[in-house]
Amino acid sequence: MRILILNLVFFFSLVALPAQAVPKAELWAYWDQADDMSSKAFDHSLWQEILTDYVVPGQDKINRVAYAELGSGDGLATLVAYIDQQAALDPRGYSKAEQLGYWINLYNALTVQRVVKYPKKGSILRMGDKFFSIGPWNDKVVTVAGEALTLNDIEHRILRPIWRDHRIHYAVNCASIGCPNLRSSAFDAANAQALLADAEHAYINHPRGVVQRANGKIQLSSIFDWYSVDFGSDERAILQYLSLHHETLGEVLKNYTGSVKYDYDWGLNSQTKR
User: Fold this and answer.
1) Quick check: 146 pLDDT over 60?
2) What does 6-51 look like in DSSP terms, one character per residue?
3) Per the confidence metrics, is the pTM higher than 0.90?
4) CA 121, CA 126: separation in Å to the nearest integer?
5) Which of 166, 267, 265 is nearest to 222 (CA)?
């Protein structure tokens, strides 16, 4: 009976997620500070080691992560060292360009750490610290400059409202098949714009992002529903935006007038390392 109840809770959490777990972008002013005259740079080399060693690109163009191997070997110590290293810094003393990579990388590293913490769970939706929580996004996971932060804080109170760049949704990773790839390169001030542009193009041109089904209907990632405000004023505007980036469905999306289906695969983006 207990297992049945847990399964029912998990099922209904999937259904209710869009309404319950998609915060608005609301600025946390404490973090909206930078020293754009500073030449200081964050060191992301430890995170790059993790990405190089444990991110596995698939033939289906989906990057998966060898979480089990990471959690049982030296990779875990490297991951913890990276998070501790970044948490000990105050990003407000760095340039805004440096801060962007800092927050994206820290978010992704904390997400990987969360998956490693729950090795028997098949979806991040089941990795919250509280019994009935949907995912870990409201759990306090790191303290930076004296402030305890959740993943939602980083994404919705720092990244989205400060940078106001819709491409951030293609950069932060939620450890799921339906999510844009965890990039195999760490973000930094020099490469962030190129990585964001590449991530945008890759996701829109992958069936997870946009696909025309056999019946002619357009199916989009639920990301374009949950965060519609970041992509366009309405569904028509979002389709127009997508049409500018899709290699083969540009005209279809531009002229599409039918109903749109939204979908998202919350299965864990896990794979045994090759």
Assistant:
1) yes
2) HHHHHHHHHHHHHHHS-------GGG----TT-------HHHHHHH
3) yes
4) 6
5) 265
